[in-house]
Amino acid sequence: MYLVSSAILLQNGLEDTKLSPHIQVVMKGNINQYKIDTYSKWKVDAVQEKIGCCGGYGDIDYRSIHIEIPDTCRDPVTGNQYKHDCGEVLSWYMQTKTGWMCGIALGICFFQVKMHFLFIINNIDINKNHAFKHTIYIFEVVITIMAFKHITKLKRQI
């Protein structure tokens, strides 16, 4: 499961996922509760301030419910309002982090495959099945080489 999902994520990135629309919907829902619920206000303000964005779909989220656009939608240095919505900016932020997370997941998968092969080899009577041991070792080397070639190909595409 990790192998397939990591390969797909490395191949396509977050652009083809539904992450950005989901973030927009969640942010819009929290903005609708902005004046009522202090926890929703805290979440929205924290996201906007930390990553530099404004609203789920932009400042229209605030204008549509007749709320003044908060200062967390503005750059603290220049005072200019952020142009991008939080769905886009948070997706861009996550895009940079998913590459190394997928690399770790792929590394764990290949380590598990290697451990399975070692377990099989250790449980076989080496004296009786010497040829089988060499076949497994060759197969393991070929799989490892193919995996690293595929990973480097995927990294170049990102």
TrEMBL record:
GO terms for cellular component: membrane. Coiled coil: none annotated. It is a multi-pass membrane protein. Keywords: Membrane, Transmembrane, Transmembrane helix. Pfam families: Tetraspanin. It is found in: Membrane. The keyword Transmembrane applies. The keyword Transmembrane applies. It comes from the Eukaryota. The chain crosses the membrane at residues 100-122, 134-152. Its main location: membrane. InterPro entries: Tetraspanin/Peripherin, Tetraspanin_EC2_sf. This is Uncharacterized protein. The lineage of its organism: Eukaryota, Metazoa, Ecdysozoa, Arthropoda, Crustacea.
